[in-house]
Design goal:
elongated; mainly alpha; two-stranded antiparallel ribbon
Length: about 160
């Protein structure tokens, strides 16, 4: 009996999670499933065996069927995606994938580095255009900006 209760308790976060809350009541995943004559613990066990996308689709369908007046199919899918993350198998996959280097970290680094480089190039190009339009060398424009900032700060005017 201890093994069974321990097994069922692994689904508690998922089953007792709020699907929606009103002033009168809180609708949990457990109540959504029970209202459809589905055993909540069996359904949770089945959902853990499915891929993440299949589990989301299955749960979204049940949420939408429970009250199609309240949710659109897309809203039910968004809600189901949040709830599926509470299942033990899907949360472990998600957390373990964060620790492994599958190239996403490197991709993010290069995307950020590229964006930084582009912003520097654009601001450099803007500065060059500013100096070209004013006819003054870049050094004198830079000095004029610095002098203006010093003058404003000595007068108590905030600078950008």
């Amino acid at each position: 009996m201890t093994g069974l209760s321990r097994l069922e308790s692994q689904y508690d976060a998922f089953l007792f999670a709020s699907v929606c809350e009103t002033d009168e009541m809180i609708l949990s995943v457990l109540s959504v499933l029970a209202r459809q004559d589905v055993d909540p613990w069996e359904e949770a066990a089945c959902l853990t065996q499915l891929s993440r996308d299949q589990a989301i689709s299955s749960l979204a369908s049940k949420i939408w069927k429970s009250n199609s007046d309240r949710w659109s199919p897309s809203e039910a899918s968004i809600l189901a995606a949040r709830l599926i993350e509470l299942l033990p198998s899907h949360s472990r996959r998600h957390s373990s994938s964060l620790g492994t280097d599958n190239g996403n970290g490197r991709l993010t680094f290069w995307v950020v580095a590229g964006m930084l480089f582009m912003s520097m190039a654009i601001s450099g190009n803007s500065m060059r255009k500013l100096t070209k339009d004013s006819g003054a060398p870049a050094h004198s424009v830079s000095m004029a900006v610095q002098e203006d900032a010093v003058t404003r700060s000595s007068r108590g005017i905030e600078t950008d």
